[in-house]
Amino acid sequence: MTGLTPDMLEGAGIRTDRQAQRDRQEAEGPSEELGQEDFLKLMTTQLQNQDPFEPMENGDFIAQMAQFSSVTGIQELNESFEGFAQSMGQNQAVQGANLVGKDVLVPVEFGQLDPEGGMSGAFELGASAESVEVEIMNGAGERVRSMNLGAMGAGLQDFQWDGLTDNGQRAPAGVYEVRATARSGESTESLETFLNQRVDSVSMGGEKNGLALNVQGVGEIDFSDVRRISG
Prior knowledge:
By secondary structure, the protein is an alpha+beta fold. The chain folds into three domains: 92 residues; 88 residues, Immunoglobulin-like (Sandwich), CATH 2.60.40.4070; 34 residues, no CATH class. The protein is 31% helix and 35% strand. Strands 1, 3, 6, 9, 10, 11 and 12 form a seven-stranded antiparallel β-sheet that branches. Strand 7 and strand 8 form a beta hairpin.
């Protein structure tokens, strides 16, 4: 089986680390750092132009040779790391391409309601609660649905909205905000919410310099922020 090369990935519209590196090099201009070849030229020039009556001490020459070996080793190590990073980037790109069309659970408060669908997600409970309420708000900030889920334990807890309002009518398609609140005694806590949203496309070089998912109705989300994959 033929492996996926950077040319194949870039041809498919997936941004690779190699392409991002070329863009950075063009933006930064020529490098001001000395490489292995530059170091060797400097040392050779120094030997050719040294004072014959005061030649370089053996200790100094050995020290420069040791420094040259160190530069060579560091350069080879950097090349190895670059190859490893490129391989990891290609694997991430392939993994991301397989996510297109799937639903991912991401940390957002706003989600898209389809004409005949509902909305599902989760919230994070740091400790058990006597009752948890999930509210659905429309674009005008009005509450269209309130769901009391009762007592729940700590951890990631799922919820489902069928797309109906409190009076049993179907809510219009559009973007809705989800709010979750936990209550225990007189204590009330707003919870972080996560929604299941569809992945439209993927790209490399997100905010955290890794794989980024372009999520329907949300925008760009870093792959590291995904809590669950389904669909």
